[in-house]
Design brief:
Oligomer: single chain
Radius of gyration: 18 Å
Strand order of the largest sheet: 6-7-8-3-9-10
CATH class of the largest domain: Alpha Beta
Structural class: alpha/beta
Number of domains: 2
Bound molecules: adenosine-5'-triphosphate
Number of strands: 10
CATH architecture of the largest domain: 3-Layer(aba) Sandwich
Number of helices: 9
Order of helices and strands: EEEHEEHEHHHEHEHEEHH
Shape: globular
CATH superfamily of the largest domain: P-loop containing nucleotide triphosphate hydrolases
Strand content: 25-35%
Length: 249
Amino acid sequence: MEKESCIVLKHMDKSFGKHQILKDINIEVPYGDIYGMLGPSGCGKTTTVKIIAGISEATSGEVLLLNKRMPDLELMRQVGYMAQSDALYGDLSARENLVFFGQLYGIKEAELKERIEEVMEVVNLSQSLDTSVLNFSGGMKRRVSLAMTILHRPKVLILDEPTVGIDPLLRKNIWNELYQMTEKGTTILVTTHVMDEAEKCTHLSMMREGMLLAKGTPAEIQEQAGAKNLEEAFLYFSGEREEGEEVRL
Ligand SMILES: Nc1ncnc2c1ncn2[C@@H]1O[C@H](COP(=O)(O)OP(=O)(O)OP(=O)(O)O)[C@@H](O)[C@H]1O
């Protein structure tokens, strides 16, 4: 029997007032995937992932996470959501931020202490555990946010532009860590507007103006477009698509 998908969007629409932002979005994210949503600024990536995370609600259509309908407060505990802007308390240290967040999730004191050290190692910030976040660079804050997102070992990780402002070497480390997390069963959804990050995903959706242009593995998308790389493929699908038509792979 075919395994159910971790995230399913069926005919999902989203409007703000009279303005329709997302149009008939259909996506299935397999368990253990690193699924990428690729598209230019303003195409609707954040709106999509916020609906999946249960922070926002679709106007119509179906949104299933772990086979249950979203939004659902209990399900939200299984999700780690990292927004584009960092939600950190500047006057607290990294450790204090993590303790606060871990307590919200009900992680017991001894486990929390150990886990904080683990996650800060993942993002290569062990040396800065007790430094006030005010003194962190943008990239360091991004890394603390990532550490916070994975602290409670969520089954599903939703990362909105996770590596913006992070240098190439550390970006590589973070991607390695994401791969390892999928091997342990985590499913990861990541938004990006950077092609080389999209190439690292197991599956991808290409988006433009609130619609899906193409879906598949990066190789399938390139092949379908007859393109040398994802950038060319994106341009191909942007130009070739008839109004409202989704390219199926
Ligand atoms: N709360 C809101 N009310 C009205 N319009 C909104 C709201 N949130 C987003 N939008 C609009 O929805 C569209 C898609 O925005 P969204 O943030 O989802 O795009 P994005 O692809 O994530 O872009 P970026 O990478 O720049 O964040 C934009 O036109 C934006 O102005």
